[in-house]
């Protein structure tokens, strides 16, 4: 495993909510995997899920007590990405700020990157 300290930053607020979700879903001991998937309105979409297994080509980092995994394939597209949790009068949610996204969709989870083409889908 290689450190991904320079790939993704997870804020303390985001880590707090992710750790709460892990506990609620009985996923203690899991890792947070951040990924780039094909699809979405702009061609690519973000994926975040709990994973029990590290892969040999994963970059790994621990931030605020949370172990984060990113595949070597996704790391260039996610380099410099910041994951935060924002609270507003309308509720709260995760925000992803990716400096490599050259376009994004109004849904907030779909984007286009210069380094990888995706396959756009119709948004619901």
TrEMBL record:
Q: Which Gene3D superfamilies match?
A: HesB-like domain
InterPro entries under this entry?
ATAP, ATAP_core_dom, FeS_cluster_insertion_CS, HesB-like_dom_sf
GO-annotated molecular function: 2 iron, 2 sulfur cluster binding; 4 iron, 4 sulfur cluster binding; iron ion binding
Q: Domain Core: where?
A: 8-108
An example GO biological process term is:
iron-sulfur cluster assembly
**SUPFAM superfamilies, A to Z:** HesB-like domain (SSF89360)
Top-level taxonomic group: Bacteria
Which Pfam families would you find in this protein's record?
Fe-S_biosyn
Against NCBIfam families, the record matches this protein to: iron-sulfur cluster assembly accessory protein (TIGR00049)
Query: What is this protein called in UniProt?
Result: Iron-sulfur cluster assembly accessory protein
Instruction: Identify the species of origin.
Output: Lysinibacillus mangiferihumi
